[in-house]
Write a structure and sequence with these properties.
Elements (H helix, E strand, L loop, with lengths): L1 H4 L8 H7 L3 H4 L1 E4 L3 E5 L9 E5 L11 H22 L3 E6 L15 E6 L6 H4 L10 H14 L1
Antiparallel strand pairs: 1-2, 2-3, 3-5, 4-5
Helix pairs in contact: 4-6
C-alpha cells in the first residue's frame, strides 16, 4: 500500500479527494448515488476491480445510516451483475476489510471491494514479482464499466 502512504496529492482521504475533484472520469468515479458512489480501484488486482464507497467519511459499518448500508448492498449487487456482463468472470471477491489489521489500505473511510475472478488469475508475477499484469488500461475499464452501468 505504498501508493496510499506516499499520497502525492497531499493530506486527505483518497476517496474524499476524488469526490471533491469535480472530474469523475479523472477520479474514476463512474456512478454517484444518493449516499454512495462507485469508483474503479486505481491499483486493481484485476480488470474490473471496483469499490462501493459511502459519501460519509466513516470507518465502521455501524456508523452509517441504514439507508446508506442498504444502498451499498443494492449497488454491490448491481456491480456483480454489471461486471458479469462486461467480463464474464468465473467468480467474485466481494467484501470489506474493516480496520488496518484486517487489510484495509484506507482504514478511515469504509469501502467495499468488488473484484471479478478467474481460475488461475493470481500468477507468479503478483505472488513473487509484486507486479500486476492487466489486459486493459484503466481508461478502457472505466469506459466499459460506465457504459454497462448506465445501461443496466
Amino acid at each position: 500500500m505504498k501508493y496510499i502512504q506516499n499520497n502525492t496529492n497531499g493530506d486527505g482521504c483518497i476517496f474524499c479527494l476524488a469526490l471533491e475533484a469535480n472530474d469523475d472520469a479523472q477520479s474514476l468515479i463512474f456512478y454517484r448515488g444518493q449516499n454512495v458512489f462507485m469508483i474503479l480501484n486505481r491499483y486493481p488486482y484485476t480488470s474490473g476491480h471496483i469499490m462501493c464507497v459511502p459519501y460519509d467519511h466513516k470507518s465502521r459499518l455501524d456508523e452509517l445510516t441504514r439507508e446508506t448500508r442498504n444502498e451499498m448492498m443494492d449497488l454491490i449487487n448491481k456491480s456483480v451483475q454489471v461486471l458479469q456482463s462486461v467480463y464474464d468472470p468465473e467468480g467474485f471477491n466481494v467484501g470489506w476489510n474493516l480496520g488496518g489489521c484486517a487489510g484495509a489500505g484506507v482504514a478511515f473511510h469504509l469501502h467495499a471491494h468488488i473484484v471479478p475472478r478467474w481460475s488461475g488469475d493470481t500468477s507468479f508475477m503478483t505472488a513473487i514479482g509484486q507486479t500486476r499484469v492487466l489486459p486493459e488500461s484503466l481508461d478502457e475499464t472505466f469506459n466499459r464499466v460506465k457504459e454497462a452501468w448506465d445501461k443496466y
